[in-house]
Each structure stands twice: as C-alpha cells, then as structure tokens.
Amino acid sequence: MTSSKMKKHLGCFIRTISQMQVCPSAMSPCSRTVVRTYVLRTNGHKSAIQSLYLRRCPLYISPCWLQSAGFFSQDAFIVSTESANANEQKTANGLLNDQTQSSRPVTEEVTEPPSGSMVTAATDRSAGEETDKRSVAQQYFDELRKCASPCDVLDLVSRYPISSKYISNNLTTMWMLTKRLSEDQRRYERQLMFEHPHFSQLCQCAMQEARYMWRDDLAYSLHAIVRLGVPQNTRLVQTLLRICQERLNEFDDRSLSVVASTLQGMEKCKNVEALQTGLQLLVEQRIPKISSLFMLQTMMKCMGVDSPLSLKTKVENKILSQIDQLTFPNAYHMFSALAEMNFRSLPILNACSDKIIENIEGIPFWRLLTILRSCNDLLYRNSALFSAIADYAASAFYMWDTKQVVLFLSAFENLGFRPASLMDAFAEKVISHPDSLILKDILAVLRAYSVLNHLPEGQDQQFLQVLNGALTSYLPRIPNVDLLRAVYSFCILGYLPQPALDQLLQDEVLHELMTEDGQNLEQIEMMLRTVNICLALEGHSVPRPAIGLSVEKQSSPSHSHFPEMQEVLFALLGDASLFRSNVKLTCGHNIDFEILMDANRTVVPSIEADQPGDDSRIQRVAVLCVPASALCFGSRHPRGRLAMKMRHLSLLGCRVVLVHYPEFQKLKKDEAVQFLKGEIFPSK
C-alpha cells in the first residue's frame, strides 16, 4: 500500500475512533455499527485499518431510487415552475450526479488476492455482515423513496440507526418533498415537521455527526436544513456553518457550489461572513487550475455579489481565454452566473448573446425568462438578443399558459423593450378568452401595455374594454392601491374605466390612499395627479375644466436644462426672443422649448402672446428633449408617460417635435441645425 493511501486510510481510522468516542453507546440513535478488527495477516486478509475504512466508507443506494423517485431533475439548471427560489432549484438538480458518485460502494484495493484455502470463518462472517448491512441500507432507501411528506421521513428515522449518510438523505428528501408545495401547504407541513418527536433527534444527530460527515453530506445537510426553515440563529445552523469553515479545504467544486447557494439566502452574521470570505479565497486559488467553462461557472456562484472586483476580473480573463470553447449550454448559464456575482462583462455577454441567437429554437421558456431577468439585473441591453427572444416567444406562446406569458411581458417591460408581435398575439388571446385573467394578471398586463405604450392595431378599444370588464368583476374586493394602479394604467393608455373611476373617486377611498405609508405616498400622489389631468383633458362624462394653454407666470427667466439645444435654436432662428425654454403649463405639463408661429409659418416672438390658444392664427410648437429611457429600447417609440404627454399637448393644439437628446448631442452643429430645421419647418 502506497504512503498516500496509507495516510488516507489512517485518517479515516482516526476519524472513526473519534466518532466512537462521541457516540459510545450502542443503544443511542446516533451510534454506529460496532467495528470489528481482525488480526493483521500477511496472507491477503483485510488489515485492521482496511476493515475500519470499509466499515466507514461503503454505502449502497439503490439506483432505482435516484432514477425513478422523481425528486431530481436530469437538467442541471432548470428553474422551478413553483415559488421555489431559483438557487434552490439549481442546487437540487445537482444532487443526482453528486449523490450517485458519493453513494457508490468503495472497493478496497488488495495487493495480493486471498488464496481459496486460506479463507477463514472470520472472513465469511465479515462478508455476511457486509451483505446484511447492504440489505438494510437497500431496505431503508426503498422506504425513503416511498415517503410522501417530511413526517413520513421522520417516522422512518425512528426505525433505523442514523449514520451521516442517512442524515444527509433524510434532510434532503424532506426538503425536496416540501419545495414544490404551495406556500400554505409548505407552512402546514413545516409546522407538523417541527412538532414531530423525532425531528429534534434528527437535528441533534446532525449536529453531532457534522464533524465526521463526508464533504458532500455536510454541504447538502446545511443546504437542506436552511431551506427547511430552521432558524439561522439556532445552534444547529451555526454549528454547521462553523464546521464548514473548518473543513472548507476539503470541499470539491460541487460542494462549494451547494454551500455558496445556501449562503445566498441567509442573513449576514459572523459565521456566514467568515464562510463567504473563505469561499472567495478558495475560489481565487483554484481559478488558474480550472480548464472547464462549466466549472468556472460553478465557481462564479461561490463568489457572491460582495466579492472584490479584482477577483471578478480574474474570472473574466479566464473565461475570455477560453471563449472559443463556449457551448450553447455554457452561454445561457453564463447570464445567471454573471448576475449572481453582479458583474457585467460586455465581451462575455455579447459572445453568449450571439450563441443564444443562433440556437434560440432550443431554449425552453424558463431559461429564456432567466436570461431576460439576468439582463435586467446586469443592466445589459442587446436589441438583437431581445428581438430574437421576442420573435421566438410570439411563435411559441400558444404552448404557454397565461401566467407564463404575463411573466414574459413583465420581463420585457422591466427592460424597456417592446415585443410588438408578442403583445399583439397575446391581446387577441385576451379578447377571445377574458376569463383567463386573474386580478394579478390584469394588473401586470395593464402595467406592461401602458409602460410600453402598445395597443393592438385595429383592436385597441376592444382590448381595453375587455380589460375594463375583467377589472370590474374584481372591484368589490380589490385593494385601493391596486385600484389606483389599474386606473392610472388605463389613463396612460388614453382610456377612462368608468366603474373603476367611480369607485376610486369616493371620499373614503381617496382619504385612505392619502394616509398610506410615506414610502408609497409620493408615488400615490403622482398617480392621482395624472388621473386628474387625464380627466380634465380627456374626460367626456365629467365637466371639462377650461385648462387651455395658460402658462404659469415666472418671476425670472427659466434656465434651460439643454444648453446644446438652446445654442442650435439660436443659430437656426437668429434671435433668442423667438423661443422660450422650460415653459410650464397650468395643466401640469412642461415644454422644454416653445416656438410660436403664425398662419404663414413665420416665427413670432413668444412674449407677444402669453395665451396663444385664444388666437387660432398662432400655433405653438413644443420641442421635447427626451432621454433614451423615455423611449422603448432600440426604437423611437415613446413610452407610456411621454406618449400621454404628447397626446395631451396635441389635444391642447400644440405640434410636438420629439428630439432624442443623447443622439442629438452627437451631431455636429451644422448637422444639428439642419435636423431641427427639418423638424420645425417641415416641407409639408
């Protein structure tokens, strides 16, 4: 036996002796099978250390349990369709490969095969005990596979001695059984689990055995205990965190990934911060030795958001050095990996985007949604990628349910990208099946269509009426804040939902809204002002106040926020008195630059008419300088509030000139003058 193997076996021997000291009583639920040693022989029989090693290491887990139980997915990074956290799901899906490896029986290495004539009765007894042990393990895992609730697993605990491998599988199975339940069911099952008489026994054994568990069992036990809802400040959780710190150098990449995903959902404390720091140091040491992009992505999960920029840069350089090895699965996993450590690497993201566009047909719904959400977290915008995803979604959305499409629309709304074809197709579905929308869906759809300023061409009124009818059915039980949000979204789209408006304008509803918490009060006031302006300018069933085009009186000239535009207007018009900047109207809107023209399209001084709306011969040109965020990404299409403002100014008799200001700033002065001349003095 080589020196390294002897050291390994000797270490296992010392660990086993230590365990026997911790749990000396054979009647204890945490006790192990008594280890028998045999006299050292030279004829090929097991040595004492080999016997102890084989007693400690082998464990048989039925392959049928891993393959057919239905608890684990073969897909490495699938996202749960329920409310389970995405990081939980990724870790759970890694259980298959990892537990299969850890559960294979350890085969001993014998230098000289034993002679048939030298087989003793002691060897026969040892083989028989080993068979009996495997038979018990087989029976245990067969019963564990049949468990349907955490309490079933705890009932099983009382009938079998608890080893470290049993603890890990018990806890992991309990977590897998609860994670797919609804929130109410999960809460009920957890309550029963905490009250079960054998739960505290299992936790006590986990705490005692943690120091002697194999690395994967320790990592998965910590992960399952945290996900099962055991309070973080308990001695059990803190003990597991501390032992993970002590044995961190033993962990392989998979175990590090499990620990890292566990820490992501935990509150900051000394043990969590220490373990996170240790993970980052270990990752930094291992980066140069990693040759697989998949393992690099696993390491990226371990780094966390708080990892130093220098470490993130090292990972980026390592990935870029292997970017020619980028595969399709690597590409879509890279988005979430970069998002988890909050690092926007444009070269990596652009390369991954190209790979995804080439293989868009092969990506399932949940992966596409994860990509969009990761882009939003990273503030990454790629119009080619978004267009490819939107076009594919429009062609495949008939295979998705309403909830999935609404999630997709919300993701695009957060990105500021307007998937016109998808929104048109979904609008048709809503018109034909309005009952498919619940209140949560109605609010999300109204927000997406209003923020992105999109209505189906030729069916806009029908679509809004269907949404109004769906909302009306929920009015008796809708919260006031949600009612205001719905009415606000309708107003942005230029539609006044009369039943919802009548309920919103009741004194008790308005009073309750204005007494909301300070965090929401500012947003509530903004939405109420917007509704009021829309009622004044677009209302037909209520008296319309004479807002007109009156301008607020200003005590001093208003300073322009757009000096480049002011300079170009002066060069174009030749006189500063022919335009005004930052004009505020009494209706609540403001105009960045105002130019007055007579019937012959001749510019007249602005100071000659404070209320040109009273003179039909005078037209007001409203020049609006807008940032990129006011337009849908990758287009000139105005977003919701800007579109509403343009609509209102048109109702007030203004001709609106829209200027994309960041692009305007890139023009040379001569080009800028020619551009404004074409917009202010069109040929037709």
Automatic annotation (TrEMBL):
* Keyword Mitochondrion part of the UniProt annotation: yes
Q: Which PROSITE patterns match?
A: RAP
Query: The RAP domain covers which part of the protein?
Result: 621-678
Instruction: State the superkingdom.
Output: Eukaryota
- Which Pfam families does this chain map to? FAST_1, FAST_2, RAP
Q: Which SMART domains match?
A: RAP
Map out region (Disordered) in residue numbers: 91-132
- List the biased-composition ranges (Polar residues): 91-105
Task: Give the principal location in a single coarse category.
Answer: mitochondrion
Q: Which GO terms describe its molecular function?
A: kinase activity
Keywords attached to this entry: Kinase, Mitochondrion, Transferase
Record's subcellular location? Mitochondrion
**Key word Lipid biosynthesis present:** no
InterPro entries referenced in this protein's UniProt entry, alphabetically: FAST_2, FAST_kinase, FAST_Leu-rich, RAP
Q: What name does this protein carry? A: FAST kinase domain-containing protein 2
Q: Which organism is it from?
A: Gekko japonicus
Q: What is the lineage of its organism?
A: Eukaryota, Metazoa, Chordata, Craniata, Vertebrata
